[in-house]
Amino acid sequence: SQPGARASPAASGVVGKALSVPQQVFGILDELRASYASETSARVMALDSFMAFCAVIAVGLFGYMMLFGTFPFNAFLSAFFCAIGMFVLTGSLRIQMTDK
C-alpha cells in the first residue's frame, strides 16, 4: 500500500463488526475498567475510592444547599471546602504514590 493511502474497510477487518454507539461505549468502559483493575495497586484504588467519596459529599452538600437554602452559610462553606480540600489533598497524595 502507498504511504498516506487509506486502507479499505475490508482490508482493516471492520466489515461485519458494525456496533451501535452504546455497545462501543460499553466496550470502551469495560476495557478501561479491566485495565484499571489489573494495573492499579490496592493503595491507589483506596485513594481513588476516598476521592470519589469526597466528591459525592461535596455534590450532596451543594444539592442540599440548592434545595433547602443557605441559612447557616458558614456551616455550608466549611463543610463544602473541607470536602473539596480533602479531594485535592488526596489527589496530591495519589500523584505522589503512582509510579508513572
Q: What does this protein look like?
A:
The chain has 100 residues and is mostly helical. 75% of the residues lie in helices and 0% in strands. The protein has four helices and no strands. Helix 3 runs antiparallel to helix 4. The longest helix is centred in the middle third of the chain and has 27 residues. The chain is flat, with a radius of gyration of 22 Å. It starts with 8 loop residues before the first helix and ends with a helix.
What's this entry about, in short?
This protein has helices at 9-12, 21-39, 42-68, 73-97.
Helix content: over 70%
N→C terminal distance: 37 Å
Structural class designation: mainly alpha
Count of DSSP H/I helices: 4
Which runs of at least 5 residues are low in confidence (pLDDT < 50)? none
- Morphology: flat
Largest sheet: none
Percentage of residues in strands = under 5%
Number of strands: 0
Mean pLDDT: 85
- Rg on CA atoms, Å: 22 Å
N-to-C SSE series? HHHH
Topology diagram in text:
Blueprint: H1 9-12, H2 21-39, H3 42-68, H4 73-97
Helix pairs in contact: 3-4
Which terms summarize this structure?
mainly alpha, flat, 100 residues, 0% strand
